[in-house]
Model the fold of this input.
Amino acid sequence: MTASLLKNPELQFGATTFFAKEHKGETCGSNGLPLTPNSIIIYGKAQKLKMLKHPNLCTYLDIIRGKHERTVIVSQYCGEPLSSYLGKERFSYDDIKKIAYKIFLALHYMHMKKIVHRSLSTENILVQENNNIKLFNYGLFYMTDNGKLVSFPIVQLSYAAPEVYLDGPNGSLSNPKVDVWSAGIILAELVLNKPLWQSLKVGQRIRKVLSLVQGNTSIFERIAREHNCYDIYLSVPSDLKQIIEVCLTIMPCDRPTVQIILKNEVFAQFKTAKESNRRKIYEPFEQFTIEELYHWWQLAGGDVLLELKKQGLIRSSPPILSLPQMVLIDGLILGQERNPATLYDSRIIQMPLEALYQRFEHISLNCYYPLIHVKSEILSNGNDSSYDAEQLPLVIREKDPEYQFHRVILLRRLLHGYPHTRDLIITESIKDIPPLLRGKIWAALLNVRGDYQEEYIKIDKETPTPTDRQIEVDIPRCHQYNELLSSSEGHRKLKRVLKAWIYKNSQYVYWQGLDSLTAPFLFLNFNDEAKAFACLSKFIPKYLHNFFLRDNSAVIHEYLAKFSQLIAFQDPVLANHLENINFIPELFAIPWFLTMFSHVFPLHKIFHLWDRLLLGDSSFPLHVGLSILTQLRDTLLASGFNECILLFSDLPEVDMEQCVNFSLETYSTTPKSITARTQQSEKCVYVTTMGIPAQDLNKEKFPRISVDDVVNLIRNDSERIIIIDIRNPTQYARSSAKGSINIPCSSITFGEVNIENVGMHSSLLKNNKDKIVVIIGTEETNLDLFPTFLIHCNIPKVCVLHGGFNSLLPVTPTILITQNQI
Amino acid sequence: MANRTSAAQRPNGSTQGKICQFKLVLLGESAVGKSSLVLRFVKGQFHEYQESTIGAAFLTQTVCLDDTTVKFEIWDTAGQERYHSLAPMYYRGAQAAIVVYDITNQDTFGRAKTWVKELQRQASPNIVIALAGNKQDLANKRMVEYEEAQAHADENGLLFMETSAKTAMNVNDIFLAIAKKLPKNEQTTGPGGSGQGRRLVEGDSGAKTAGNCCK
Done:
């Protein structure tokens, strides 16, 4: 019973396939770069089609690129082609009017989106069980750039308007009125209940259509007479007849647009005003969509290419058979038989869903309606039907259909309630982020809200600027392994988003790297540029505040100094080694932080990294950097300068899940003031208390800790802290922090790097692993020597109390004691 | 596919001759092919979609000249004008520089001339500068005439070649030409190039001692 929600006749899909035109001869464009394969251009253009949502259009689900420029289109497919009804039981005139109305609604919606069908026919109009109709495969002309990217003509012989033929075999006429003509022919066929010119050959049919141009009597009447149906013609209600006749107007300029046709009286009876208006107010909520079903189907082992192979739509022939007989030196190929597969194959293969139904059979109905706010204990206890996979590695969870089912069902519901459910979205995102909804969840995590689309529209993205040259040379090398980002559409969109950001943030400038930073957002929101822009606009102030200033040296230097200090704090052995070989972060870490690692990792790794990053604050990236060094630690420790820098010029494989988890670990155990920067945008209590002058920051190997963090640790977590008071014994005896030990600075000889020099407390420090070693001195004592000495002795977690002992004096209730009391 | 030229390989078995280490820096407008030249020289590869360089990248390659082994430590810099402030960090103490422009783009040639001027003013006085007109494979779209660049090179005492990272034309040659021109007497540097790295960041003191292996 439970799969019943899945077994919805609307939720069926099928696939068609064709080949894109191959580039002949010339393989390089004028810029020296290889020409973008046509299948990639199609891939980019077709993305927009996925956005079309209309009750009379089959939803596009996926575009897949196969070998040799093969393109596979996956789309909703439900019902039977209208053509299969012709010649059987006649449709009533009312039914025909209804069908006409729905066809025109669909065409109207398409034309509004600037998409011309160009190949409308009874083959690609589907009649559903509930008598609804849906257009199928309506985007072929659009996605192939008006047919220019394929070698077959996109035309339906009997249905094409005369001007389509007059435009010639390679014509790319994209006047939406061609669809009106095709609709007229279809309606004529329905009324006459027979396919037109059935017995004629290809050439004759074309001639037949063109012959209609001659003469000035009603075309519909001529067609009816020709098919011996004049009696039917006479009986057609005049309103319907009139519609058909205006559709079949020869001159495109005289033929009405779909919009005008829809205003015709004959359709008034079908108009229900409330439906469209309500939609505008609030989107109806669906438990899940066909896109999600398709996603689960794929996870459960569904494979479109495999199905097409099984059904014989993809057939591979031995390559030797396609060898040409002669190739001229300039690349001209002679004597190669045309592969019949490069012609258009209109077959549609329905994808079998049984495996998915079976897989999901045991999922109970209430899983489709997850509880979000549970106040009743009985209910919350009864709700443990959720699928237990949380312990599995992330990559497995992402591929587990059932787990993704639960995650998607839950999170899409939460997203529907956004922004009110933002806290819940954050809580769930800590577990993981379902890849299908990543774009939306990221936007929620980044707090994108309001009418971001309106804002984006207002921004000038077109006026040429001096930065354009730089953007133009950077985009064709930005994540180009990715199909979306390497498509012409991807290039165009990335350029627009970048230009928009620069226009909107006049205080900042374009630094190389901004392209890489934008790419993940664009990839995830390919059909919603405005959202990609909104995410970028939220991301940069949060994580890269002031990084894109014309002069960003202050920010970068502070950031890198903090990074060095964090390494010294967490891993002094590594820090000392890197210092000895002079391997400073300036030489390798600028692209890391400036692009938040998006310049150094491929997209799929960036996703997992940013999934976490977006949950942390602006110090998290420092921990990621540390984590990368930690993964390569053994190599680094064994290498000199050249080997180390070579290692980073070509960054080796980094295990992202491990990297992220390690970052989380150090992130959660490092007091916030350790990584606090003056240049961060977050309001942070430490920043006001810790204005460390830049020259001190660069000089100090150790981080400073704020008095608040120290007091907190003493009060709540005194097991995690070792306090070393380096003032002289008299001062120490008079007043000192609770639990502190006294190692007077003056008592130590710093000449040789040996922890034993510290005296009786040396073993405590030597054995320290996790405790934070806070050095308390005074402004007068030299605060550099001792902590630097400890770091050189490889003591981890060394930091210095900012402001020295005096900063503890105003703390109330006090944490100071005098030694005499003991 | 990584077919290094034989010149780029260490002599095997033969008694080690002199080993010279040189720091070389690549400069030039972005997208003229600096990284591609280095990649072709070091790995024998060419990537059509070579990523942009942020900050700088470092690579090494060794070539043999008669009885001398020359090890290049190559700093490949970011081309965007904004990264200019980082450039001194890389060319300071460099014994050689390749200034690259794109023969299909006149502006990049202008930028190359400014780089040459800056190097002559700011870098080590004995620095060997080579001018590389890259993307020679696109000669049919040429905007910078060979003669024009040659004349500029002659005036300023630069090595000059038109190169193509894509077809590998003149890539090894230009590095070899630089190696030949570099002074290789009183060679002292041993293995472990950490000295180079240190010099890179120590600032002015480093610049003064630049070329400790080959002066």
In short: The longest strand of chain A covers residues 13-19.
